[in-house]
C-alpha cells in the first residue's frame, strides 16, 4: 500500500462517521456515472477538504479521462486497441483485457477503492504485479461478490 493510500485510509477511517459516510461515497459514485469516463479511479485522484468543508471531495487528476459523447451528443466510437494504463490495483477487468473502458468500469474501480478504504486488506491482488494473475483474482473477487448478494423480490 502506498503512503498516499495509507494516508487516505487513515483519513477515511478517522472521519468515516463525520465526513465520509456511505451517502458521500454513493454521491461520488453517482458523479462518476454522470461524468466523463475517468479510466483511472484511485485514491490519489481524490482530495477531501478539511475543516467545515470536510464533506467536499475534489477530483484533481483527469490524465486518462475521456469523453464518451462528442459535443453533438453522438457516442464517441470505441477504439480498436486500448493500452493497459492506470494503477493495476484499481483498474477494471476490461483494462486488463485492453478493451475500451466505460462508466461502469469506473464504478468497478471505485468499488475496489471503497473496499480498500473500509477494509485495507480486502484486495487480495494488492501486492501482485503480474497482469494475468491480478485479472484472475479480480474475476474471483467479482464472482464471489455477486454470489453473496441476497436479492429480495
From TrEMBL:
Gene3D superfamilies hit by this protein: Transferase(Phosphotransferase) domain 1 (1.10.510.10)
Superkingdom of the source species: Eukaryota
InterPro entries hit by this protein: CK1_Ser-Thr_kinase, Kinase-like_dom_sf
UniProt name for this protein: Uncharacterized protein
Species in which this protein is naturally found: Parascaris univalens (Nematode worm)
Amino acid at each position: 500500500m502506498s503512503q498516499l493510500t495509507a494516508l487516505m485510509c487513515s483519513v477515511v477511517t478517522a472521519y468515516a462517521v463525520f465526513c465520509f459516510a456511505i451517502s458521500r461515497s454513493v454521491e461520488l459514485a453517482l458523479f462518476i456515472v454522470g461524468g466523463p469516463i475517468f479510466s483511472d479511479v484511485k485514491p490519489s485522484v481524490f482530495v477531501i477538504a478539511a475543516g467545515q468543508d470536510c464533506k467536499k471531495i475534489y477530483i484533481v487528476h483527469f490524465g486518462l479521462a475521456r469523453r464518451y459523447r462528442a459535443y453533438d451528443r453522438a457516442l464517441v466510437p470505441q477504439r480498436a486497441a486500448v493500452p493497459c494504463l492506470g494503477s493495476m490495483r484499481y483498474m477494471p477487468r476490461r483494462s486488463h483485457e485492453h478493451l475500451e473502458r466505460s462508466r461502469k468500469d469506473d464504478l468497478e474501480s471505485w468499488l475496489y477503492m471503497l473496499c480498500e478504504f473500509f477494509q485495507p486488506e480486502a484486495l487480495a491482488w494488492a501486492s501482485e504485479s503480474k497482469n494475468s494473475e491480478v485479472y484472475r483474482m479480480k474475476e474471483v473477487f467479482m464472482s464471489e461478490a455477486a454470489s453473496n448478494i441476497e436479492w429480495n423480490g
